[in-house]
Structure formats: C-alpha cells, structure tokens
Amino acid sequence: MEFAGYIARRYLRSRRHSRFLSRGSVTAIVGIAIGVMVLNITLAVMNGFHHEMRRTFVENMPMVTIITSTPEGFTDLGGVMDRIGADPDVLGVAPFIRQVGLATATRTLGPPRIKEIVAWGIEPHLVDTVQPLSRYLLPDASVLGELDATGTPRVILGADLANSLYAAMGDTVVLTTVNGELDLDKIEAESRKFVVCGFFETGMFEFDSRFVYVDLVAARDFFGYAPGGASMLGVKVADLMRADKVADRLEDDLGTTYFATDWMALNANLFQWIKLEKIIMILLLGMIILIAGFNIIGILTMMVGERRREIGILLAMGAKRSQVMGIFLINGVWLGAVGVFFGSVVGLAGIWFLKQYGITLPGDVYFVETVPVLLQWGDFFLVAAISLVMALLAGWWPSWEASNLKPMEIIRYT
Fold first, then answer.
1. Which residue in 371, 275, 407, 340 sits closest to 40, CA to CA?
2. Which of 60, 68, 191, 279 is the one with CA 20 to 30 A from 41?
3. pLDDT tens across 270-312, in order?
4. C-alpha of 397 from chain center
C-alpha cells in the first residue's frame, strides 16, 4: 500500500511542475467540492424550513386533539379533563369550540367585506397551557384577558384577515355560522356582532388569514353548545415527537366514544410532501457530484493512457496487478476526499453565515422573515459518505483497466 500511495502521489502531479496538481485533478476536486457545498447548504435550509413549519403548526394547534362521537359534544367536561390531566406525559388540557363561518365588516365607502373564517372558542386562562397564543397577540398579550369582558362579545382577528376586512381596534364585525339542526330543505344561519379587541400574527398565512378567537362562553351561546360544553379538547404533551403514542394511550383510557388525533396525523400529507421534496432535492443536486465523478473517470482514464509505458515497466519489474489497481483507486479516493473536505468546510461556513446574518425574506410571502437554517450532522456525514463512495466507484473502472494491461506488448510497441 505504501508503494501504491507513493506512485499515486506522483501521478497526480503535473508533468511540467511536479509540485503542483494537474489541471484535471484540480477540476475534479472543485467539481466535487461545489456539489458537496451546495448539497449541504440546501439540506440545511430545507431542514430549517421544515423545523420552522413544524414549530408553527405545534404552537398554533394542540399537539393532541380529542373529540367525542356524541352530537352534543363534551358534557362531562371537567371529568374528562381530569382523566386526561392524570396522564404523566400530559402538560396541559384546554377546551375548544371550532366552527367554520363567515366574517363581515362594513366600510364607509364600498360594499361590505366578507371572508371565510375558522372561529375558535377558547378559555382565556387555559389556552396558553396548550398553545402559546399570547406570544403572537397584538398589540400585547393583555388582549387575551379582554375576551371575557361584559357587554358586546369580543373577538381577536388574524392580522391578514383584519387587513382583508379593513378592521381596526374597536371596530364591529359580524360573524355568521349555521346553528342548530340542519334541514336539507331549509338551512338557517345565525349572525352576531363582535367587537375587535386585538389581533394575532403567527407568520403562517393559513392561520393569520382565517382564524378568529372568541371567548368560550360566548362561543357556547353563539354556536349552540350547552353551558360547560365544548367540541374538542386540546392537549399539550411533554415530547411532541411522542404525541402519537400519547394520543393512542388517551384514546384507550377514555373509551370508545372518544377519538384522539396527534398533530403529525393531522398534517401527515404536508410533512410527507416535505420529506419527498427533500429526497428529490438530494437526487437533483447529487447530479453535481455524479458529474464530478464522471470527471474523475475521465481523468484517470487519460492518466492510464498517458502512463501505459510506466505501468508496463512496473508490471515487468514485478509489481502486482493489485498494486497497480490500488494506485488509481487511491487517486480516485484522494480526489474525492479532498473535494469533500473543501466542500464541507465551505458549506459549514455558508451555513454559519446564513445562521449568523441571515437573508431577509418577504414576510407577506413566506411564514418566516429570514432564511431558516438547521444543520443536521446526519445529513452532513451522509453527503460526505456518498461522495466518497462515488469517488471510489469512479476510480474502479480505470483501475481495473490499468491492472489488466499486458506489460510485454506495451514495452514492445511503445
């Protein structure tokens, strides 16, 4: 191996300037380095977007949602909440009422603005035990305490929804929803006025453009639920990645009339698409490394052609064919290793720069203000390992070809 390594180092150098690498070797190294760098930065950015999207979903929706099959919803709300809270993995429980409807706001000039909404009835002093709603409230978290004020019911609007309705603090909006028993021949709607007491902005357009929050007592009266009732229970668990197991356990404990769904199951299609997108991105950007691998094949093939006489002399002097094959395998792996090293270093520097200084994004288009970055060392080492394997495979064919040359014919005819 020492003999093969010595010859391999000599072959990598330029014939004209023996201390420097040949132009082809530098080209192969740069190609692999660019591929590794781009792939590492892209995966870090995709991981960052995935992490931010998951965090946004978890912070704006319960980790576990429990519903009941009874039409009137939860009747023994306190008893069910006590049973759920007894689970050691449960950190908080809060009742909710969820209803789809319309929001209407009048304007001084022009027709009224009408938008589709998802209305949430919440318990102001319990909601933060399940999801940190007060963190996103505007102008500050104190507006949460104004929901249960006496007089006209209060409402908190999503920031994008408020902009669409041209609704400001203290304005009146009309919420409309279907109430009571549905008759296919005659569907009745009920409307009620609410005063805007605040706004919330999560950065997720789907939430900020549709969600509204009202006090649970007002929601019960408006949506036709009995006093002390709710349509669902939200649960916060200690480990969000074990929410599915906690949901299964709670469903077994509560009985057959209750159903528990975790946040991963509710958004399964979205996160499956994100994983698929990541795989596709790896395959597409991996083509850069693959092209660099073909560059290594070309370089080593030309090297074998240029060094045919020297290879023949080595074989005639007693060098083993495995040693000759090792010379070019070492060349291929060395080119790949150097490219992976420089690509990884530059990639880490790029990830650090993005994390430290960031790139500003338009907040009205994306749900984050800067490009999110999350380095996962598993992806980092996987890219390096795949690149080295590709470099090894790229060197195999030229190495096999060199080891099977016939020394006597080479020496005789060259």
1. 340
2. 60
3. 778 877 887 888 888 778 788 877 878 887 787 777 777 777 7
4. 39
Residue 18: pLDDT band by 50, 70, 90 thresholds? very low
* Under 8 Å between Cβ of 199 and 158: yes
| Chain-centre distance for alpha carbon 247 | 23
The pLDDT value recorded for residue 413 is 60
Question: Rounded to 5 degrees, what angle do the CA atoms 396, 300, 332 make?
Answer: 55
d(CA 216, CA 232): 12
Q: What is the pLDDT of residue 6?
A: 66
End-to-end CA distance of the chain: 28
Q: How far is CA 42 from CA 239, 301, 380, 384, in A?
A: 28, 32, 11, 14
What SS3 class is residue 92?
strand
Taking the CA atoms of 205, 209, 210 and 215 in sequence, report the sign of the dihedral they define.
Answer: positive
The angle formed by the CA atoms of residues 109, 111 and 113, to the nearest 5 degrees, is: 110
Return the CA Rg of the chain: 33
**Does 166 have pLDDT greater than 80?**
yes
Residue 26 DSSP one-character state:
H
Query: Is the pLDDT at 20 greater than 50, yes or no?
Result: no
pTM score: 0.70
Q: Taking Cα atoms as reference points, which of 41, 133, 119, 130 lies closest to residue 355?
A: 41
Beta strands in 272-347 (DSSP E): none
Specify the residue for token string 């639920």. 225
DSSP 167-219: --TT-EEEEEEE-SS-BTTB--EEEEEEEEEEEE--S-HHHHTTEEEEEHHHH
| DSSP 8-class letter at 73 | -
The listed range with the strongest mean pLDDT (108-112, 298-302, 349-353) is 349-353
Can you tell me whether residue 74 is helix, strand or coil? strand
